[in-house]
Amino acid sequence: MIKTSIHKTQKNRQQGAAIKMVSPYLIHLAVFVLFPVLFSIFLTFHQWNIISPMKYTGLDNYLHLVNDRLFWKAIINTLFFLVIHIPLQLVVALFLAWLLNEKIILRPFFRASFFMPVVISGVVVTTMWQQLYGLETGVLNQLLTAIGLSRVEWLSHPAMAMVSIAIMATWKNVGLYTILFLVGLQAVPQSHYEAARMEGASPWQQFWYITLPAINPTIFMVFVLSTIGGFSLFIEPYIMTDGGPLNATLSAMLYIYRQAFGYYHMGYAATLGLVFALLILLVVAIQKRYVENTENA
Amino acid sequence: MVLIFKFKWFASLKVGMALTMLVLLGSCNNKSHDTDDLTYWTSNNGGEIAFAQQVTALWNKQGGQQKIAFQPIPEGQSSEEILLAAVVAGTTPDIYSNIWQGLVEFYSKSGILVALDTLKGFKELIAERCDATTLAEITSSDGHVYQLPWKINPIMTIYNEAILKELELDSFPASYSDYLKAAKNYSKDTNGDGHVDHWLGNTSMKLAWYQRLFNFYPLYLAASGGMPLIKDGKAVFNNKYGIEVMTFLQSLYQNNYFSRQVESAGQDLFIAGRYGSKWTGPWEIEYLDKFKRPGFQYNFTTMPVPDAHQGPVYTYCDPKGVVIFNTCKNPQKAFDFVRFMMTEKNDLLFLHTTHQLPRRKGLDTMASFKNYFDTHPHMKGFARQSHFVRGSDVSPHMIEVLDIISQEYEACVIYQKKSPAKAIEDAEKAVNILLKTLD
Lengths: 297, 439
Hints:
The complex is a heterodimer of chains A (about 300) and B (about 450). With about 300 residues, chain A is mainly α. Helix content of chain A is about 75%, strand content about 0%. Chain A is built from 13 helices and two strands; from the N terminus they run H-E-E-H-H-H-H-H-H-H-H-H-H-H-H. Chain A has helices spanning about 1-45, 60-65, 70-100, 105-120, 120-130, 140-145, 160-185, 190-200, 205-215, 215-230, 235-240, 250-260, 265-295, and strands spanning about 45, 55. Chain A has a two-stranded antiparallel sheet. In chain A, a hairpin with a 7-residue loop joins strand 1 (about 45) and strand 2 (about 55). Chain B folds into two domains: about 30-155 and about 315-390, D-Maltodextrin-Binding Protein, domain 2 (3-Layer(aba) Sandwich); about 155-315 and about 395-439, D-Maltodextrin-Binding Protein, domain 2 (3-Layer(aba) Sandwich). Chain B contains 17 helices and 13 strands. In chain B, strands 2-1-3-11-4-12 form a six-stranded mixed beta sheet. Chain B has a three-stranded antiparallel beta sheet with strand order 8-5-9. In chain B, strands 6-7 form a two-stranded antiparallel ribbon. The interface of A and B includes residues 135, 240, 261 and 263 of A.
């Protein structure tokens, strides 16, 4: 009986200590995550411009969202960006990782160089690329015309603008994913390749049957991170195109920002944010299910 | 062991809380150490900071009245965002001097501004500075006045004087047809790559609402003789002037007379000689005098108008005003300072220090300003234009209204996806839905 009581007291003390140890994180979670999420959900049922009292509007914001042509265009634009950006990012990052995994001269220099854009501010990168993409004065068009090709309306043609932004975003982020792939590649045992070579496997067969299956978890991680990063597309269209031309680069995040801090429609912006977050969750869940099915198969 | 753990845990928690409080209080406290002082936020451009420094020093030196502590508005993406954050945090200054006229209705409807027409000395100040049109422009929909018109920067056409010689013109074209003719003659491919690389002008390709304040809106005011965009809660720009302006601008892009280059920070194709002209304000003078090439001569003229236009040529004047927030404990004292800041003598000081025009009637004919305008001839042109300017219409939703116009502008003017009549009609419909929904 006494033993049980002592045991209980010790257990309570341990639990108390554990709660105290995690409490800073719990407080942070409550203040900076839980409260904003709950407050945002609360806001979706209101009209509020920050400085005037809130007005209860029921489901008006949701009804408005359903018929908001611009929001759905922004969602399609964001998905279009992902369709270009993710495969490009995966292929380029894997290729660079493969190169950097080989014994090439100045390998540390190249590794640092490819990673450099990741640590440069997004605003700086965007401004720099805006100059490269210039229609009349941009370096890219000057190079194209110098070799006799037609110049490209990188940012001013509705069909081209999002592609240009995806290329730039890939350049900016590829270094991070290259490092992840590099880690994955270095973890593949060399004995597998030696055995394959002895069996007469070609380099392509080695890549396809050994490398790719071995780095599958890394591919999934890069896939998910690129997807989440891609959904938060904001700085690039905000600075380069302001969502134009003809709303071709209006991303969901840019549209939400415009509603919240351009027009001060906080209730509507919260509604857009909530629906958008659910969409991201859905896409990531589908990705996860697909990868799990592939692995099981 | 448990005690030590407890002590460390609580001690670190206390230290953490104390530090947090210190940081929070430090960042929130924008008042000066003397709590009786009134705080005055100015914009954060160098000239206006220098003016605020001088004018507050003069006021404080007089003694016997409440002192003013000035500071530039804290850095942020835009002054609107900073003000909004200050309102939410309850840290607004007593006086703010750089508020865009189109935003005042938004703030006044939220009840955070002092109605200045209830203060002693208001009538005298307004009578000294404003005509009836300006007074009507700054009067809120509830009949009160929440802003004092302080400064303007009228939008005009700046042109490279070399093009007059090149196009054999005596003066820069004033009508649409002359402008289009000049634009056609000036467009050229100088490096032989098959692409035009010299244009008569451009407008920003960006969609941001304020970009239309430098092209569509001043052109609309010029064409219509200063008509509003919104009246009595309805869009009133679907008229022959609105359509004429869109048609004119569309022709410029359709014929490749205007460039579709997206200019980035640091680029200036006017200085580079690639654009023959542009629509801009008097801030361009100081900038050009600093960065222009030797021998680069420029001049200003009014906005182009339809061929059949008669009468004065109006433009948009980018008006900024002074407001007093209702967190101010002594609005009358704050107003007295603002009156002092806007005396003729201090307006002259403002002009000298910032090279921006005070919003004051008869600016170009006042004896005390003569010397300044004689030594700054380009500014004199802007002062003459100040007789024929308009600010913003009274609506809490001006930003959205201009955003809607901007969307239609892009579709019609830049990409020719809509006819001018359809673009104006669609903008009118969208603005009316907006005003009906939100008002």
